[in-house]
Design a protein that fits this description.
The structure holds 2 protein chains of 2 kinds. Chain A is of the alpha+beta class. Chain A is built from 5 helices and 5 strands, in the order E-E-H-E-E-E-H-H-H-H. Chain B folds into 4 domains: 191 residues, 2-Layer Sandwich (Aldehyde Oxidoreductase, domain 4); 184 residues, 2-Layer Sandwich (Aldehyde Oxidoreductase, domain 4), CATH 3.30.365; 122 residues, Aldehyde Oxidoreductase, domain 4, CATH 3.30.365; 201 residues, Aldehyde Oxidoreductase, domain 4 (2-Layer Sandwich). Classes of the chains: A alpha+beta, B alpha+beta.
Chain lengths: 169, 759
């Protein structure tokens, strides 16, 4: 996981306006300073792809990208994202074209119930942006913070490696 | 078509039940092994894949309705206490709090044999004491801390083995221990007396927590008298029944929906207290209400796999097993039943003399819930280790010993012939794939001086025959697409995909032409998605619905094309007659005002045969004798489940079962603080589910021999089988590696080191 962005200067105690970018578009929300990015995405912005599973930074189901780095959005405050670019699973496919990682997850059956899948996918997307030729060890490191209770792990590795091939082309 | 009533015996998680169902018409001839199917049996990616990888799939947790209120539940901090007084006035004074429910103000609402959901005597840490509905979850969480409760703390029992003692506090008038299963075969006394070798050992398994990533939860909304509930469940019809019983309202006023759900593993079998709380608040407050458990609550009050204490005494006469006595005690917590760990002992091997007893033990802990092959994982852990211990004693190869007791012909419990039992083929494939010839009775050197390598295996028995009633319909649209509706659920197993394959195969469409709609009580009944019974229950009904639709379509085509129906066939959406090809859309387009609706029902299982699934797991491990760490290098999982409908999703299912089994045997253990009765690791940090780094090389193999006696698709269930033999196979491999046996799961480093130090 990448470093959580530094806290900005302004603070509540009441709700404050926070402006940032989500999936390429600007948004402004009015949230209390202690509101997490996860709850803001889900409840204020209707983006329910990131899931709340542990709500304490142990499972990775809420993983999104902030300025390109994967973060646990349950451990990131919304106010810490002011002026930054947030990417969620909803923003990955462009014009009905799936992102190579999404397509590879389907092709390799890299999910069962699918609840951890948005987080797994965002971790893999971040990996491939930094490293288009990952080894399986790189993939393991990238998603070792993402739990899957159905045990889709072997296929997740296969999907990430196969997506990397497509990204390189 | 003619409707008739059928009565049939069917197996659900080791228990035989009597089912009554209605069936229509006649069943189809089962597809033969060489039927030449083009869609069934072929690799098919999931039809709901796009929804799941884009975040569009809407789970219960993702249902946000306008004006929705949020619930948090106040739970007992004591393992046993009387609730003498509840004062919620401070909570109700908090801005944004809309209502409170507790034992002194909640309407009567029956729940699993009790009259109310808030007990006067709370019986475990986490038992529901009160609930708050508020404008936000945050406010509700703040408010429950402001509820003042006066508890009279009572004596409690926080542990299985403590509850079994004669001097233990009695939690139940009938005593803490009750017999829940027994079987006697032959004469064990005589067999033990005449044995050439006897081994006796005690095995323990720990409480495993489901930890489905989506916690239990529900959203309830009333429109006048009509209640709609979105629930993360394995059985929408079960939830409907629970709501009807609690709220005393007719079925016609209840609709339960579960489009997507984030795992259940057995724990989501019906309405929970959270469902009823949401419905009560929604009715009382006139707003939609959401009640979704937190991770901690999930691990206190939403079920678990019982810890067990088991003793096995096993005897040999010469090179054969002559007798087994298996006694098992299961921690039911506050549950009203237990699974039967002696099930595998009763039915897996052909053993002439047998005595098994299974006991339910109540403790001051949360109730158990079915957890993927309840009882059979725990029981196989004891049974298949005992067999290895006996094999070691008599100097026999453990696989060779098992081969003498495969009992391929008939079920030792019922005496009925098996429809099909390919256990021997599972052994043959597994033996070869793992390289069993490398196994030495004393283990072998590992990859470093302080590492030892070992091999182990274990066998699997489970039901999985499926059962009626189950129904499905298929609506054909004028453009040649179709909608398949069935009241089953896709809990992550790939049900939507497999049903689309079956329908497409029979109807002559492509998988892409079929939309599958599940998880809605407004469609046809289907059983719970548990017990490995979905495909074998629902699949045959779907095939019949598709056949019904095909016959209607052919009748229409015959009239329009002026060709006899027997000269027509449908392939990939095209009606073919004597070289003439007419797309279905062209035919249906001409009869726009008539909708083709195919209906199908599940016919009973055949009488007089035993329908089971079998398998074997083989494991190669290394053990670090300095640290006690177990490194699983390779697992070979071989399963005999009849026809494999989708090799892609079936392999995923097996890998998932293996990985969950690895958690059970190596890392997962609920820890309870004995002085306070509290679960101390009810989260994903302290409770260790496997991560991607814990996954070994897994080789999956299917015998893939259709069981044409079982049902018209020849398939049996696969949900549970792949977790059953894995823990015992690993335990046997560890014992082979280090020459000493760890008889407690999970096999942690500490337990390995303890075992080595006692050597």
């Amino acid at each position: 996981m990448g470093a959580v962005p530094k806290a900005p200067q302004f603070i509540g105690p009441g709700a404050v306006d926070v402006a940032f970018e989500v999936n390429g578009g600007g948004v402004s929300v009015h949230v209390p300073p202690h509101r997490t990015l996860l709850d803001t995405l889900r409840e204020s912005l209707g983006l329910t792809g990131a899931k709340r599973v542990c709500d304490e930074g142990t499972c990775g189901a809420c993983t999104v990208l902030v300025d390109g780095e994967p973060v646990y959005s349950c451990m990131t405050l919304a106010i810490a994202c002011a002026g930054r670019a947030v990417e969620t699973v909803e923003g990955l496919s462009k014009e009905n074209e799936l992102h190579p990682v999404q397509a590879a997850f389907i092709e390799h059956d890299a999910f069962q119930c699918g609840f951890c899948t948005p987080g797994q996918i965002m971790s893999c997307v971040a990996l491939l942006r930094h490293n288009a030729s990952p080894t399986s060890e790189d993939v393991l490191r990238a998603v070792s913070g993402n739990l899957c209770r159905c045990g889709a792990y072997p296929n997740i590795v296969a999907a990430a490696l196969s997506a990397a091939k497509k990204v390189r082309r | 078509m003619s409707i008739k009533v059928v009565r049939t015996k069917a197996e659900f998680e080791g228990t035989i039940t009597e089912e009554t169902a209605l069936v229509e018409g006649t069943d189809l001839r089962p597809w033969a092994a060489d039927e030449g199917l083009t869609i069934v049996g072929k690799r098919q990616t999931r039809v709901d894949g796009v929804a799941r990888v884009t975040g569009r799939a809407r789970y219960t947790q993702d249902v946000y309705l306008p004006g929705m209120l949020h619930v948090r539940v106040l739970r007992s901090p004591y393992p046993r206490a009387r609730v003498r007084r509840v004062d919620a006035s401070r909570a109700l004074a908090l801005a944004g709090v809309r209502g409170v429910l507790h034992r002194f103000n909640a309407p009567k609402a029956a729940f699993r044999g009790e009259e109310t959901i808030f007990r006067d005597e709370v019986r475990f840490v986490g038992d529901e004491v009160a609930a708050i509905a508020a404008d936000s979850e945050e406010i509700a969480a703040d408010a429950i801390r402001l509820i003042d409760v006066d508890y009279e703390v009572l004596p409690f029992v926080p542990d299985l083995e403590e509850a079994m003692r004669d001097d233990a506090t009695r939690l139940d008038e009938k005593g803490n221990v009750t017999e829940s299963g027994r079987l006697d075969r032959g004469d064990t006394k005589r067999a033990f007396a005449g044995a050439s070798a006897v081994v006796e050992a005690t095995y323990r398994t720990s409480t495993q927590l489901h930890n489905s990533l989506e916690t239990h939860g529900a959203v309830a909304r009333w429109d006048g008298d009509e209640l709609t509930v979105w629930e993360s469940t394995q059985h929408v019809f079960g939830v409907r029944e629970g709501l009807r019983a609690a709220l005393k309202i007719p079925y016609s006023d209840i609709r339960v929906l579960c489009d997507y759900m984030g795992g259940g593993f057995g724990s989501k079998g019906g309405a929970g207290k959270y469902s009823i709380i949401a419905a009560l608040f929604a009715r009382q407050l006139g707003s939609p209400v959401r009640c979704v458990l937190t991770r901690d609550e999930e691990n206190l009050a939403a079920g678990n796999r019982s810890a067990t204490y088991q003793t096995v005494k096993i005897a040999a006469r010469g090179k054969k097993i002559s007798a087994i006595e298996h006694l098992s005690w299961s921690n039911a917590g506050q549950g009203r039943w237990v699974a039967d760990p002696t099930g595998p002992t009763n039915g897996l091997y052909d053993i002439p003399n047998l005595r098994t007893r299974s006991y339910k033990v109540v403790t001051s802990l949360g109730a158990l819930a079915s957890f993927r092959a309840p009882g059979y994982v725990e029981g196989t852990f004891a049974l298949d280790q005992a067999i290895d211990e006996l094999a070691d004693r008599i100097g026999e190869d453990p696989l060779a010993l098992r081969r003498r007791h495969m009992g391929l012909r008939s079920d030792p419990v019922t005496g009925l012939r098996y429809s099909l039992k390919r256990l021997e083929a599972c052994y043959d494939v597994g033996e070869k794939e793992i390289g069993w010839q490398h196994r030495r009775p004393e283990g072998t050197r590992g990859s470093a001086p302080h590492r030892r390598r070992g091999y182990g295996m274990a066998s699997q028995l489970w039901g999985g025959s499926g059962l009626p009633p189950a129904y499905a319909t298929i609506h054909l649209n004028p453009d040649g697409t179709a909608v398949l509706r069935c009241g089953t659920q896709d809990i992550g197993t790939g049900t939507r995909t497999v049903l689309a394959q079956l329908a497409a195969e029979e109807l002559g469409l492509t998988v892409a032409d079929i939309r599958v709609e599940l998880g809605d009580t407004n469609s046809q009944y289907a059983p719970i998605s548990a017990g490995s019974l979905t495909v074998a229950s629902v699949g045959p009904a779907v095939r019949l619905a598709a056949k019904d639709a095909r016959m209607q379509l052919l009748a229409a085509a015959s009239g329009l094309l002026e060709v006899g129906p027997s000269e027509l066939r449908i392939e990939r959406g095209v009606v073919i007659s004597k070289g003439q090809r007419t797309p279905i859309a062209e035919i249906l387009g001409q009869i726009q005002n008539f909708t083709v609706i195919g209906k199908g029902s599940r016919f009973p299982n055949p009488e007089g045969v035993s329908l089971k699934t079998f398998g074997a797991h083989f494991a190669q491990v290394e053990v670090d004798t300095r640290t006690g760490e177990v490194f699983v290098e390779h697992v070979v999982a071989v399963h005999d489940i009849g026809r494999v409908i989708n090799p892609l999703t079936a392999a995923s299912q097996v890998e998932g079962g293996v990985i969950q089994g690895l958690g059970f045997v190596l890392s997962e253990e609920r820890i309870v603080d004995r002085p306070t009765g509290r679960v101390v690791n009810g989260n994903l940090e302290g409770y260790k589910v496997p991560t991607i780094r814990d996954v070994p090389k897994i080789t999956v193999r299917f015998i893939d021999d259709p069981d044409t006696k079982a049902n018209n698709i020849g398939a049996k269930g696969l949900g549970e089988p792949p977790i059953i033999p894995l823990p015992a196979a690993i335990a046997n491999a560890v014992a082979n590696a280090i020459g000493v046996r760890v008889r407690t799961a999970p096999i942690t480093r500490q337990r390995v080191l303890d075992a080595l130090s006692l050597q």
